[in-house]
Each structure stands twice: as C-alpha cells, then as structure tokens.
Amino acid sequence: MFFREINQNLKLSLSIPQYGEEMFQLINKNRDFLKQWLPWLDNVKVASDSREFIELQLLIFKHINTSFKARSLSFTTWESLPNHDNISR
C-alpha cells in the first residue's frame, strides 16, 4: 500500500475500498463540523457512497502516469495522537 509517514504520529496513505465503512462512519458522526469545508457531504448518504468514491480515486491513481488530467486523489490520514476536540471517533 502506498503511504508516506509524515511524522512519528501521522501517516498519509492511499485510501482503499476497505476504508469505506470507517470513512462513512467518521463522516456521519462529524457531518456538521466537516460540512464547513466539504460541501459534497450532502451526497454521502450511505457507506457505499464512500466506498465508490475511493474506488474512483484508485482508478485515477492507476492512470495518473498515462494521463496528467487527473485533478484529485483521495488519501486517508492515520494519527496516533489523543482525540481532537472537534472530531468524534
């Protein structure tokens, strides 16, 4: 799996479909807080929406070497710090 260790407590990894359910649960628990920055949250209604988004981003990642038209990729951050005050886990 592609990942970049940012520091001792934080790792950035390419999202994979297996993260879809967990991503959806985090989005759903923190929807009001995240909506300030992520206007597309209204389109994420079920876990399969998150999984399908990740699958699309993986297709973009797969073809990025042959097409420079890709505009975004989805990454997941993993941190081992105490809970953030504004985010529910």
Which descriptors would you attach to this protein?
alpha+beta; 89 residues; 3 strands; 35% helix; Aminopeptidase; 3-stranded antiparallel beta sheet; 17% strand; 3 helices
The biggest beta sheet is recorded as: 3 strands, antiparallel
What would you give as the CATH superfamily? Gcn5-related N-acetyltransferase (GNAT)
Structural class: alpha+beta
Average residue-wise pLDDT: 75
Q: Helical residue percent?
A: 25-40%
Write the H/E string, N to C.
Answer: EEHHHE
The order of strands across the largest sheet is 1-2-3
Instruction: Show unreliable segments.
Output: 79-84
Give the name of the CATH architecture: 3-Layer(aba) Sandwich
How many individual β-strands? 3
Shape: globular
Distance between the first and last residues' Cα? 24 Å
Write down the CATH class: Alpha Beta
- Quote the beta fraction: 15-25%
Based on CA atoms alone, the radius of gyration comes out at 14 Å
CATH topology: Aminopeptidase
Instruction: Enumerate how many helices there are, as a single number.
Output: 3
The total tally of domains equals: 1
Describe the protein in words.
The protein has 89 residues and is of the alpha+beta class. The chain has one domain: Aminopeptidase (3-Layer(aba) Sandwich). The chain has 3 helices and 3 strands, in the order E-E-H-H-H-E. A 3-stranded antiparallel sheet has the order 1-2-3, with no helix packed on it. Strand 1 (3-7) and strand 2 (10-14) form a beta hairpin. Helix 1 crosses helix 3 (47-63). The radius of gyration is 14 Å and the shape is globular. The chain starts with a strand and ends in a 10-residue tail after the last strand.
